[in-house]
Amino acid sequence: xxxxxxxxxxxxxxxxxxxxxxxxxxxxxxxxxxxxxxxxxxxxxxxxxxxxxxxxxxxxxxxxxxxxxxxxxxxxxxxxxxxxxxxxxxxxxxxxxxxxxxxx
Length: 104
What we know:
104 residues; mainly alpha
């Protein structure tokens, strides 16, 4: 039990700042931003926003590392859905969906 709690704390400590950084990147208009948006949207609704993991290969190393940290946060902490960690996360993710041409 203690090992699991230690893992969750480490995942939270690394994952939350990584999520904030990726959310900032997702607001931009670049190829990497599109990959980050699609990656984050896949946590929001994987059926609506399927994501091919090979796209992560195109990310710069810091963004790739942040993506892995967010994946770990989602897989190991599971306290809440990813978008709930961000202020106005639902609205932000829906805006990204519109940027990708996907409606509600």
